[in-house]
Amino acid sequence: MNVEQLIADYGSWFYVVTFLWTFLEGETFVIIAGVAAQKGLLDWWTLFFCAWFGSFCGDQTYFWIGRLYGPKILARFPRWRSGVEGALAQVQRNSTWFILSFRFIYGVRNFASFSLGMARVAPLRFAALNFVAAFVWALSFAGSGYLFGEAFEAVAGEWVHGIGLVLLTCLVLFAILMILRARRGRRRAAVAPVSSSVSKPPA
């Protein structure tokens, strides 16, 4: 069974999967679903709203887990401490900008909302900013999948047979993007301790 037939047969479940997947992460899946929407296999607006609210609800959940149980969880899973501390450092620099942007920072989202809860950010403030950030995130990835699929078909014309080649190209490009973001994140992590030690005032 090819991808198009799978979506045609179980399209309504793709919206449920979109909500659940974006509750956790979901960039790749949302891009693929955006391509499927461009092909007419899914409704783009329904996809967008599922991605928006899935992302919002997921990070609200992580925020409250961090706020209520953060220290206990870190005591149980000490390997998570370095990721949480890195996110907390970003919160201390500019919490508003961090809430609006952490979804787009590789390797940070897994700890961001949890750390914001531990940092005792006001719940209503986080919810409002998180709502806006989830909107921008869903629009960006669902929209890029839709627009990329349309542009790719316009360029390739009849050479494209079905959705499989478009999806494969999306995955390759997304993988390249993730590799570049990971490298940039490692460079920033290496520079951050040096910068903080230099800028730290003497005792």
Description:
The chain is mostly helical and 203 residues long. The chain is 82% helix and 0% strand. It has helices at 3-24, 27-38, 44-76, 81-93, 95-101, 109-118, 123-156, 164-199. Helix 2 (27-38) packs antiparallel against helix 8 (164-199). Residues 191-203 have low confidence and may be disordered.
Short note summarizing the structure:
By secondary structure, this protein is mainly alpha-helical. It is built from 8 helices and no strands.
Radius of gyration: 19 Å
Distance between the termini: 67 Å
Q: Please count the beta strands (DSSP E, at least 2 residues each).
A: 0
| Class from helix and strand fractions | mainly alpha
Judging from the principal axes of the Cα atoms, what is the shape?
elongated
Overall mean pLDDT:
78
**Sequence of secondary-structure elements:** HHHHHHHH
Which spans have pLDDT < 50 for at least 5 consecutive residues? 191-203
Number of helices: 8
Q: Please summarize the sheet with the most strands.
A: none
Question: What percent of the residues sit in helical stretches (DSSP H or I)?
Answer: over 70%
Strand content: under 5%
Q: Which tags fit this structure?
A:
single chain, 203 residues, mainly alpha, elongated, disordered C terminus
